[in-house]
Amino acid sequence: MTDLHHTLLTLDSHIDIPWPDRQDAWTEDTARQVNVPKAIRGGMRAVCLAAYIPQSSRDESGHVEAWERVQAMLDVICEMGGHHNGQGARVCRSASDVRAAYKKGDLAVIPAIENGHALGGRPERIVDLAQRYGVRYMTLTHNGHNVLADAAIPRKDLADEETLHGGLSALGRDTIAAMNRSGVLVDVSHASKSTMMQASGISTTPVFASHSCARALCDHPRNLDDEQLDRLKDTGGLIQVTAMGSFLKKGGGGTVEDLVRHVSYIAERIGIEHVGISSDFDGGGGIPGWKDATETVNVTRALVAAGFTDSEIAAIWGGNMLRLLEQAEKAAEAT
Ligand SMILES: [Zn+2]
């Protein structure tokens, strides 16, 4: 079993980085749930690291601040490439880069953005960030509506009503077109249902949810309901079940077994090719059985115990996400 785990290209599709940066990505003995030594020790082979932009005011000052912060965070993520004490990390721009890093035994780092607020209301900036940093996905929102789209969880402290745009704004639609052209996946985690349904209708590359769970099993606004899951199936999208106790079990307290219960439910409803895994480590994630990157083998154990075959586990653990990244790359080349 441990043998199987260490043959897998395990890809965790959502991890935050501490901010402000503490320059501790290579130091094993810190409170961080994921750093290079912990990931390598735990057999976590590829990580999507998110530059997380908190939602702030939807005006010029909020937009200037967000644009500066996203570049500073992506600078830090992209500086992680290199070798220290016999361990390596490689910043990856493509699925083939990820496979090459895996073959060498290096940790694959895939840059991502959490919250389209980062663009400061200028859709074309995603093209620039994709070119400069190799950004591969961006959530349209965080908690709180932004100028692109409505969020699943409005922010009363920012004077949010239940809805601002009724889903996507015109700017949000332009942003999705720019993301499609640049090979940046449209991430609908944190987006409202109307935003998600509209985005899946206009995006030329299937949308995905980098860190969400199944609402049928746990009624939380951050989870996707059956209609949304069916839409992912119809459009070729993907949902990456996440290790957030309160999304896994009503009232909280979800465990690694609950995480696999969500994976099984989604696989049965829409097919194994539409489901994967994420931790949301260093962003609030972490559950009994998978509290940091060093315990990643327990997820594989629970998948085996739930009856998945080795090839199914390989698809869930990264194959599906790599396929989607490749699809986005091909679509970008074709434009
Ligand atoms: Zn999040």
UniProtKB/TrEMBL annotation:
<protein>
    <submittedName>
        <fullName>Peptidase</fullName>
    </submittedName>
</protein>
<dbReference type="GO" id="GO:0006508">
    <property type="term" value="P:proteolysis"/>
</dbReference>
<dbReference type="InterPro" id="IPR032466">
    <property type="entry name" value="Metal_Hydrolase"/>
</dbReference>
<dbReference type="InterPro" id="IPR008257">
    <property type="entry name" value="Pept_M19"/>
</dbReference>
<dbReference type="Pfam" id="PF01244">
    <property type="entry name" value="Peptidase_M19"/>
</dbReference>
<dbReference type="GO" id="GO:0070573">
    <property type="term" value="F:metallodipeptidase activity"/>
</dbReference>
